[in-house]
């Protein structure tokens, strides 16, 4: 692939792993996130452009090349809360970041993705089943999963493939924070929550960001040219 891959949420644990994995495959990468950073934070593996999605999508589009080989949308936020405790401000914030931002990004950039290119969304197992104390996050990811299938159908005429990777429990700072929040809700320690949650994974370990990145790399490769509208569960069997 000669055209660059755009990776959003590139400074997070999964985003950094994706950038590193694509760099090892000698793919040119344009990385973006909402924080001030430089390519050194990503090991010099990518051109870095700061963009706060969704508000900064227009400005980001002006800085991007006319052709992209692929888009990998990793950016997202989570909010842990009882299912009976939601408010409009939190709802709007989560859905703006987790649903509207990726869809507007594709709406503005789909015509720049080359024929036969690829779009990958990082969804979540929470979008496919009940997610305790994460109602809004799970609902937002479910919406993204569904939207990806519609996009896969609409963009198939140019051979552009759209797929979702759905991580389960992955060793990230986001997971650490969720364990703390869940522990606070249940009057338990974050360590207890981490043990309980990881103990339910059949394969016997928590996932690594590199596990997710490997699946993303496959979906961008020539080996996945007949794969679109699919969901890949990166859960270690945690969905069983």
UniProtKB/TrEMBL annotation:
<comment type="similarity">
    <text>Belongs to the short-chain dehydrogenases/reductases (SDR) family.</text>
</comment>
<dbReference type="GO" id="GO:0016491">
    <property type="term" value="F:oxidoreductase activity"/>
</dbReference>
<dbReference type="InterPro" id="IPR051122">
    <property type="entry name" value="SDR_DHRS6-like"/>
</dbReference>
<dbReference type="InterPro" id="IPR036291">
    <property type="entry name" value="NAD(P)-bd_dom_sf"/>
</dbReference>
<keyword id="KW-0560">Oxidoreductase</keyword>
<dbReference type="Pfam" id="PF13561">
    <property type="entry name" value="adh_short_C2"/>
</dbReference>
<dbReference type="InterPro" id="IPR002347">
    <property type="entry name" value="SDR_fam"/>
</dbReference>
<protein>
    <submittedName>
        <fullName>SDR family oxidoreductase</fullName>
    </submittedName>
</protein>
């Amino acid at each position: 692939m000669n055209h660059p891959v755009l990776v959003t949420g590139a400074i997070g644990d999964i985003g950094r792993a994706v950038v590193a994995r694509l760099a090892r495959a000698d793919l040119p990468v344009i990385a973006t996130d909402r924080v001030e950073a430089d390519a050194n934070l990503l090991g010099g593996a990518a051109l870095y452009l700061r963009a706060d999605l969704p508000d900064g999508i227009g400005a980001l589009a002006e800085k991007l090349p006319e052709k992209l080989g692929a888009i990998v949308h990793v950016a997202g936020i989570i909010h842990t809360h009882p299912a009976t405790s939601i408010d409009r401000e939190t709802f709007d914030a989560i859905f703006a970041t987790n649903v509207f931002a990726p869809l507007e990004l594709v709406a503005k950039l789909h015509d720049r993705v080359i024929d036969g290119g690829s779009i990958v969304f990082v969804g979540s197992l929470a979008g496919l089943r009940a997610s305790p104390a994460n109602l809004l996050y799970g609902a937002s990811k479910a919406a993204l999963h569904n939207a990806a299938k519609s996009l896969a159908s609409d963009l198939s005429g140019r051979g552009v493939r759209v797929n979702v990777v759905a991580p389960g429990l992955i060793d990230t700072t986001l997971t650490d924070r969720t364990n703390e929040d869940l522990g606070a809700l249940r009057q338990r320690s974050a360590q207890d929550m981490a043990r309980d949650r990881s103990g339910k994974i059949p394969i016997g370990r928590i996932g690594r960001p590199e596990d997710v990145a490997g699946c993303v790399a496959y979906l961008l490769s020539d080996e996945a040219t007949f794969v679109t509208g699919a969901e890949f569960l990166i859960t270690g069997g945690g969905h069983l």
